[in-house]
Amino acid sequence: xxxxxxxxxxxxxxxxSIEFRKTTSEIRNPDGSIVFQLKDIEVPASWxxxxxxxxxxxxxxxxxxxxKLVKIEENATPSWLWRSKSDEKAxxxxxxxxxxxSEMSAKQVFDxxxxxxxxxxxxxxxxxxxxxxxxxxxxxxYMLATQRVAPNxxxxxxxxxxxxYGIDGPGQGHHYVDFETGKLTKSKSAYExxxxxxxxxxxxxxxxxxxxxxxxxxxxxxxxxxxGSGTGSNFSDLRGESEPLSGGGRSSGLMSFLRIGDRAAxxxxxxxxxxxAAKMVVVDIDHPDIEAFIDWKVIEEEKVAALxxxxxxxxxxxxxxxxxxxxxxxxxxxxxxxxxNPRLKQAARDARKSLIPEAYIMRIVELARQGxxxxxxxxxxxDWDSEAYGTxxxxxxxxxxxxxxxxxxxxxxxxxxxxxxxxxDKVVKEVDARKLWDQVGRAAWACADPGIQFxxxxxxxxxxxxxxxxxxSNPCSEYMFLDDTACNLASVNLDKYLQTDGAFDVEGxxxxxxxxxxxxxxxxxxxxxxxxxxxxxxxxxxxxxxxxANLGGLLMQSALGYDSDEGRAYCGAITALLTGVSYATSAExxxxxxxxxxxxxxxxxxxxxxxxxxxxxYGETSGYEHLNTKPVALDLANVPHQSLVKAAQKAWxxxxxxxxxxxxxxxxxxxxxxxxxxxxxxxCDTTGIEPDFALVKFKKLAGGGYFKIINRSVPMAxxxxxxxxxxxxxxxxxxxxxxxxxxxHVINHGQLMERGLSKETIDKVExxxxxxxxxxxxxxxxTLGDDVMKQLGVSDAQMDDHKFDLLSHLGFSKQDIEExxxxxxxxxxxxxxxxxxxAHLPIFDCANPCGRIGKRFLNADSHIDMMAAAQxxxxxxxxxxxxxxxxxxAEECKQAYLRSWRKGIKANALYRDxxxxxxxxxxxxxxxxxxxxxxxxAVTSNKPAAEKAMIVAEKMVEAVRHQREKLPxxxxxxxxxxxxxxxxxxxxxxxxESGQLGEIFIDMHKEGAAFRSLMNNFAIxxxxxxxxxxxxxxxxxxxxxxxxxxxGMVQGNETIKNATSILDYVFRELAVSYLSRNDLAHVDPSTxxxxxxxxxxxxxxxxxxxxxxxxxxxxxxxTSLKVVEFASQGATALKTGExxxxxxxxxxxxxxxxxxxxxxMIAKARMQGYEGDSCHxxxxxxxxxxxxxxxxxxxxxxxxxx
Length: 1202
Prior knowledge:
Layout lengths: L19 E9 L5 E11 L4 H11 L5 E2 L2 E3 L12 E3 L1 H5 L3 H4 E2 L4 H18 L6 H16 L3 E3 L1 H6 L2 H5 L9 E3 L6 E3 L12 E3 L12 H13 L3 E5 L19 H17 L7 E7 L5 H5 L1 H31 L15 H12 L4 H12 L17 H5 L6 E6 L1 H9 L2 E5 L6 E6 H15 L3 E4 H6 L24 E9 L12 H21 L5 H10 L2 E6 L1 H7 L7 H29 L9 H15 L24 H21 L14 H5 L14 E5 L5 E5 L2 H8 L4 H12 L12 H6 L4 H11 L11 H4 L1 H6 L4 H5 L5 H4 L4 H12 L34 H12 L9 E4 L5 H13 L4 E6 L21 H6 L5 H13 L17 E6 L2 E9 L5 E9 L3 H19 L4 H8 L8 E4 L6 E2 L2 H14 L20 H7 L18 E2 L1 E3 L3 E3 L8 E2 L15 H10 L15 E4 L2 E4 L10
Parallel strand pairs: 10-11, 11-12, 12-13, 13-16, 17-18, 21-22
Antiparallel strand pairs: 1-2, 3-6, 4-5, 7-17, 8-9, 10-17, 14-15, 16-22, 19-20, 23-24, 23-26, 24-25, 26-27, 28-31, 29-30, 32-33
Helix pairs in contact: 4-5, 4-18, 8-9, 11-12, 11-13, 16-35, 18-21, 20-25, 21-23, 21-34, 22-23, 25-26, 26-33, 37-38, 39-40
C-alpha cells in the first residue's frame, strides 16, 4: 500500500514542529498524600497536565527500560526498523541503579507504538516501498503526539516493549497464528507478540473442568485481566437449577457459577498493577434461570442495605447490653443475670425488639462475664467500594439479557413466553411475557442492571452468520461478534478535524481513518491471544474497532444542540464517513494481502450488510435486505456540511465496489467505544458519543491545584451564534465568576475594610478567589492568619471550627453571601446568563443539570436518538449509558428500552440517578406512614398546632405502641445552643437513667409566635413518641434532609456545620450525640476531643461517670472528659465532691487547610457534574459516567476496556 504525507515532511523529524516541555506528573489523594509522582518527564507542550499525568502514570513503562540500547540486525528489514535490546557492555559501565528505569518522554511511547506497527506491517507485506513505511511511521507518531487518535489502553501497556527495549519474559499461556505459515503456535515470549486487544468475547460450555468449560473460563479471564483487557461471555449454555446431570443428581444452576466467577474476577482485578479490568455477563431471555438473573443485583443491593442497617442496629442495641454488664456494681454474677440486673434486662429487651437474635445478645453478656472491657461493633456503609458491597456478589460485572424480536412481540401482544431447558430444549416453564418484561424494568430502575442486547437486530447486521450467531459482547457493549474473538480499538478525536471556518476537515479525516485502519489490522497480525480458539478465530475474522471521541464537544463548538435534528444528522454523517472509509481501506488491504479467511463462506451476507449501510448513507427509507427493524437513515437535509454527505456516500460506493472485487480484510471495522482513559490522553471534552457533563471545568495546574475555566466549546459556540466578544466575556463571567470581589455590590473591598480588614489582608483573599468553589472557603484562618482572625473578634474555638463562617460573623447575610458567591465563583451554568437568548440554551444542555441553579439536562430520548443516528453506520455497537433522572419510573425504563429496539439500536444500558445505594436521595418525610392521608389532612387543616403535632406523633407510634415509660423526676440531659441560618435555636434533652433519650425541647428566638409554638409542640410529639418506644432512628431517618427555612450555616455546634432546616439540624445533633451516627456530622467528634483514658481498668472505672453525666453531652463516649487523677488512688472516674473537668483540645493552626468532610466533597462533586463516588485508585471524587462505565478525571482509571 502507498501512503502520502499530510502532517510530516520527508527527512525531517516528525516532532520538529511540535513543542515539548518538561514537567512533573503527580496524582494525589483528597487528603494530599501522593498516589504517584514522576519528575522531569517530557510531554508535548500543548497537552494538559491531566493528559501528561495519564500517560506518565498509566502508559509509561516504569521499570526495565535499559539506559543503553543496541540494534539487532535483520536482513529483510530496513535498519531504522530493527528492534532494540539492552546493550549489556555499555550498561556495565553504569551504576546498578542507573542501568534500568522508566520511560521519561512521551516520544519514547509514541516511537515504540508506531515503530512496532510499522515493523510488523513491513514483515507482513503491507507497504509498497520503504518510503511508504517511513511515511507511515512518521505520520502515526505525529498523530499520537498531536492527540488526533489514540489506541486502546492495552496497546499503550504492551505494544513495543519487546521491539523498543528487548523487554521479555516467559510465555503466559498465550497463542497466535503465524502469519507466514498460518499455523497455530504457542507463545514462548510474554511480549514479542504483544496483547494489544482490549475487547474479548469468550465462549463457555456446560462443562465443569475441561478446556472451554466453566472453570477454564476463570483462567482465561485472568490472562486478560492481567494485561488490562476486558471480556464478555454468554452463559446461556449452562444448565438451569435442578436440570439433570449426566451422572445423576441435579445441577446447582447458572447463578451458583456466576457468583464464583464474579468473586474470581473481583480478586484478579484488585491485584492488577495496570487498572481495573472489566467483565460482561450475558444470559438469553429464554434461560430457565432468567428470572433469578434479572433480580440478581436487585437482591444483592438489598443485602447491602440489610448489612448496613443491621450493623448499625446491632451496634446501637448491643452497646447498652455490654455497658449494663460492665458498669454494674452488684456482687458476683448478678451483673450478668437479666433477673437481677434491671439495666441489663431493659437493654436486652430493647435489643429483642429490634429482632437481634437471643443467642447474640447472650454472647455479648458472656463476653462481659469473661472480663472483656471493650468490644468493637463494626458498622458498614454504602460506599460502592465498601466492605458491604465487597461481601455480596454481582459487583464485578455488567449484566445484560439477550432479547429477541419474538419475545418483544410477545410483550406487545400480551402473550406467554417459554423458558427452555439447556439439555433437551424442552419447555421448562411458561411465563407471562409482560410480567417478565415488568421485572426487567423494575430491576433496571432499582439498580441499573440488567442492560438489554437486541439479539435479532444484532444478527440482522451480522457479516458472518454462516459461522454462527452473535451471542455476546465485550463489557462495554460496543464489540459484538462471534464467540472466542477479540477486537482492538482506537478512537479519533473529532475536535482536531473542526476547521477554523467551522467546516469539517474531510480529507484529513479520511487520511486518519485509512492509516489507523491499517494500524488495527497490523495489530491483529502481531498479537497473541489468551486461548487457542481466540487466536484461531481472530486470525480468521480479523475484527477491528475504529471509532471516535469528542462528538459532544464538536456539536457544541458548531453551535448545534445534542438534542437537535442537525446534531443527530452531523453525527450520522461523520459515522457514515468513518465506517465507509474504513471498509474501503479494508478492501484495499484485501487487494494486497487477501481477504480474511472466513470471507469466502460469508461473502454473500457481508456484501448484503455493506449494501444496507450504503442505503442508509443515501438516506433511503426502503429497499433494505433482510432486516427485521428498519434502520434510521442519514438525514441528508439536516447535515450542516453537504460536502460531508457527498464524501460519506462516495466512501460507501468505493467500499462496495472494492469489496465486490477483492473482498474485505476484516469482518468488522468500527465501534463507538467509551474512550475513558484514552479520552483523557487526547484532552477530549467529551468521550465517545456522549454529551458533555458540565459547562465549567476545573483544569489541573502543573504545580498542583486547579483553576476554573469555561468549557472551551462554549465561547466557540457563542461566536458562531453571533455574540460579540464583550457579550461572550459577560456570559463567561456569569458561569465562571469574576474571581475577584472588585465590583461586587454586596461584598466588596470597601465593605470589608469597614469591618476591619486591611488592604494587605484583602490582597490575600483576592489571591485565593480565582480558583475558589465558594468564597467562604477563602475567608478562614489559613488565608488570613490567626492574628487577623483575632482582630476581627474570632475566638480560638471558632477558629478551630472547620466550617466557621467568617462572613456571617462579620455581619453579612446569607443572601449577601450567595450573591457574592455567584459574582466571584460563578453559577457554573448558562441558565439566566445576561444577554443570552433563551432559544440558544439547548445548544449548551449537558447530561446533568449544571451548577447550583441549573435545571436543564438532556432527557433519555435524546441519548437514544443520537445512538440511533449513528448505529446504522457502525459495524459493531455503541457503548453508551442512557441517563435518567431520579424521578424516572420503571415504566419509563421499559419504554426507553422499547424505543431503542424500534430505532434499530443493538444494545442499551440505563442509569437512573440514585439507583445505587452509594447515591442515596432524600425521600418524602412520613410518606410511608401516611397511607390513609391522615397526616396530610391534619397538617393542612386549621387545627391548633399542638393537635396537629399529636396526630403526627400518634401515627408514628401506632405500630410500636406499648405502655408509656415515664422519665425520672430528676433527669440528665444537656442544652445545646446554636445559630441556624441566622436564627438562634436551643435544644434541650432529657434522658432515662440508662442514658437513653426520652424527651426534647426546642426553643427559638424567631419572630412570630406561630412557628415558635409549632416547634414547641412538635418537640412534645417527638417526646411522646420516644416514651412510647419509637426508636430515635425512625425520627432521624424521617426528619434529616428535610428542607425549609430557616436553613444554612450552623454556628455554635462542634459537629454540625450546615443544615437544610431546623428539623434537619435537630435530628443530626441527636443522631450524633445518642446514636453515634457520625455519618450525619460534618466534623467527626473523634477529631474534636482527645481521649484521656488509658488502660482497660481506667476506662471501666470511668464508665461510672455515665451515672451522673449526660450520655448525649459526652456524645456517647467518655473521650470528651478528662479523668481526674489522684496520687493515692490512681485514676478514678468520679469521687464524691470532685468536679469532672472537661478537657478542651485546641487544634493548632497549620499551613494547609484540613480535609473537607466526605458529605461536602460528594455534594461538591455532584455540583461539578461528577457522580459523587470516590475513585478506587486515587480516592478523588471525580468519577464521571463514560459509556456504560465510569472514568476518573483525575487519574484516568476506568471500569471499561479503553
